[in-house]
Amino acid sequence: MAEETTAAAAPHGFLHLLGLKRAHFAEGIARFELEAAAQHMNRMGIPHGGVYATMLDSALGAAGCWAGAPDRFRPAVTLTLNVSFIGRPQGQRLIAEGRRVGGGRSIYFSEGEVRDELGVLVAQATGSFKVVTQR
Fold first, then answer.
1. Would you say 98 and 78 are in contact if contact means Cβ atoms under 8 Å apart?
2. What CA–CA distance (Å, rounded) separates 115 from 90?
């Protein structure tokens, strides 16, 4: 059985640098939000595709990491992540939601999307993830 970790809500490392915040975490679902600012934009003045990919990786991965409470999670790594870039946001707040859609105890599958606060769909993704034991 995978080891559980606490303090799942506190962003650290790259997610902290990006400004990504977890807004919701429950069994089979995770939601992350980001206030898009100048440092997130590409040369066209829209959020860089890497921002969407990171948000989706975080939300889809977290969707399979529930360990019974919002402050506990099972650590996992990404095996695959397929992102489709669909549109341009109209608002400033980006919301990524991931949902676990299948798998077993150690490998699971998730899907999700990034929308802005107005509901505009900007990216979708599917991915596979593996629960790991921390070293």
1. no
2. 10
Domains of the chain by start residue, with CATH: 5-131 (3.10.129.10)
Express each pLDDT in 61-73 by its tens digit: 999 999 999 888 8
Lowest model confidence (mean pLDDT) among 30-39, 54-63, 66-75, 97-106: 66-75
Phi and psi at residue 79, to the nearest 5°: -95, -45
Q: CB of 7 within 8 A of CB of 25?
A: no
Local structure of residue 73 (DSSP, 8 states)? E
| Long-range contacts (CB closer than 8 Å, 24 or more residues apart) made by 6-12 | 6/71, 6/72, 7/71, 8/62, 8/65, 8/70, 8/71, 8/72, 8/73, 9/70, 9/71
pLDDT for 77? 96
Q: Does residue 1 have a pLDDT over 50?
A: no
The answer to whether 89 and 134 are in contact (CB under 8 A) is no
Q: Rounded CA gap, 98 and 33, in Å?
A: 12
d(CA 79, CA 17): 23
